[in-house]
Design a protein that fits this description.
D-Maltodextrin-Binding Protein, domain 2; about 280 residues; 2 domains
């Protein structure tokens, strides 16, 4: 059986899926047609139900609950992993006019956008662009602020940019929960037995990767060509953790908490029970 699988070219995703897509583990009769894309592209595709299995930001997933269900493995979720709000110049939060400021964000369906809106609900002048363009947007003063994700959180200081707010810390302080960034979802139309098999294979793929870490494989390197191995490892160590192996109760509760926030801001699919979010 062949299934389409989409995830980002970032080191955390390629680290997670390397063993699976390159058959370093037994895939138990399943074949995968792999597409690597920026997460906001994957988010947009979810509205079209384009892929069988896909990495999604949680706001995109919440808006497509009729189409997809969340797997227990493969998630980016944890503490200290949130997006950062940055500026070119140091600013005073107490006097800064967020209502008038222009802010670069990595897509309207991203968790970064939701977390920013949670922290700064008065900020409305948003410009959505691919995540890798945000640092330059702030440096060139096309926008006053930017919300950075992925490897940019390890490089912004080298470019002379300043952290304004750690949006993850803001979330953790207010909600007392880990930060859910993204997860792996599978079409609800796929047979449950197959979906459970996929979930188990992703878990085995992660465990295989960790068993060989700190090795950075060629698969991870080829999709992170502008990054040093040190930055790749920082990226993996920040975003791949025990929650990636299995969400567990704490991970699921954090996602449920984010769902309640999203429901106040987005046209999310309503649910009768939180169990509807997760494959079980």
């Amino acid at each position: 059986m062949k299934l389409t699988l989409g995830f980002s070219p970032c080191p955390n995703d390629t680290f997670i899926f390397d063993a699976l897509v390159n058959k370093k583990i037994d895939t138990q009769g399943l074949e995968f047609d792999v597409v690597l894309e920026d997460v906001e592209t994957l988010n947009k595709w979810s509205f079209e139900k384009k892929l069988d299995i896909t990495k999604l930001s949680y706001p995109a997933f919440f808006q497509n609950l009729d189409k997809y269900v969340l797997l227990n493995s493969g998630a980016a979720l944890g503490k200290g992993v949130g997006p950062l709000l940055i500026s070119k110049h140091s600013i005073q939060l107490s006097t800064f006019n967020f209502q008038q400021a222009t802010i670069a964000l990595p897509g309207k369906n991203t968790t970064a956008n939701l977390l920013f809106s949670f922290a700064y609900p008065s900020a409305k002048n948003k410009k959505h662009m691919i995540f890798s363009a945000i640092e330059e947007s702030v440096l060139n003063e096309q926008t006053e602020l930017g919300v950075i994700i992925h490897e940019n959180r390890f490089t912004y200081q080298q470019k002379g940019l300043h952290k304004v707010t750690d949006l993850g810390e803001f979330w953790e302080e207010k909600m007392h929960a880990p930060i859910p960034l993204g997860g792996i979802a599978v079409k609800r139309s796929i047979d449950k037995e197959i979906s459970l098999k996929i979930d188990g294979l992703i878990r085995k793929s992660i465990e295989f990767a960790f068993s060989n870490y700190p090795l950075i494989t060629e698969y991870v390197k080829q999709h992170s060509q502008e990054m040093s191995e040190d930055v790749m490892r920082q990226h993996i160590e920040l975003y791949v953790n025990n929650f990636s192996v299995d969400l567990g109760n704490n991970g699921k509760q954090a996602i449920e908490t984010l769902y309640k926030i999203a429901a106040t801001q987005l046209p999310v699919n309503s649910i009768q029970s939180s169990s509807e979010l997760f494959l079980s």
